[in-house]
Design brief:
Structural class: alpha/beta
Number of strands: 11
Radius of gyration: 20 Å
Largest sheet: 7 strands, mixed
Oligomer: single chain
Distance between the termini: 26 Å
Length: 358
Amino acid sequence: MQHNLSRGPAKGGLRYSSTVTLDEVRALAMWMTWKCALVNVPYGGAKGGVRFDPKLYSTNEIQRVTRRYTSEIMPLIGPVQDIPAPDIGTDEQVMAWMMDTYSVGQGHTTLGVVTGKPVPLGGSHGRADATSLGVAHIALAAMKHRGMTPAATTAAVQGFGKVGRGAARFLADAGVRIVAVSDEYGAVHNPDGIPILELEEHVATAGRVARFTHAEDLPDRDDLLYLGVDVLIPAAVEGVLHAGNARRIVAKLIVEGANGPTTQTADEIFRENDQLVVPDILANAGGVLVSYFEWVQANQAYWWSRTDVESRLRDCMNAAWGRVVAHADKCQVSLRLAATSLAVETVATAHLMRGLYP
């Protein structure tokens, strides 16, 4: 699904999920348009989805699904048309299969057709952690904006997958005390702080955060949302903060690691309570930034070091944060409205400048 091509080729993730819908894909494609525009990446938005649960299938079956899907959409994708990337249920191996299938069809290797590939196949250093690192940069900037110092700040991370795991680690490295973490199976809490590296090792073995030696299990995974922490990072799925639970949220700073975790009603409640919400199109834009870096590297056949990638990511995320905060202050609006209006204006300007071909 392609949303807008005014500023460049389409860009977005491929999602494998038993619950994915056409409306979900449409919404995510639109989100990608605004996200790319906000961080000044010359792409439009796109998204793809296949309705099946990869956890229930073998590696060979997932490969066959991937190659067939790629062959079906081959006329629509390409390094100057539409560049897929990993999302829920997909990873760098899926991207390698997509790149290979497309390349066989073209008769030559085309590294730039997808991003999020393994490094030996033209992937970028730092891509795997890019979204997480971007969330951490924005969280730290927002904390500074609110007069918080990392050493005196507590945080809870909902979701310990591709985004939440790295965000927890990077924030802990910066001195933030991560006191609670959850996943789809449960949640753990330690008011003195959870050792994130050890939790990662536990999850690698146990497959879930529950029953971690250095923390207590919470009765319900959603209990994490209501803890008395300074920062809450919803990094799981859509719609977890809503009218039914928003008034129970204590955190004064909410940084959206996931796409669409906050409903409109919850947003209004948080603003009434002076709780700052950093919107998804800003907070989790690190992934598309480094995807863009990977695409640039593939087109130039010149590869950057991890230091180069992470330095450019930090600069771009901080620059986007500065633009959004300045616009919010100038117009006296929320960060979400400021980010969205800046993104829409960027796309609209490009569309109007291109005009209509008679």
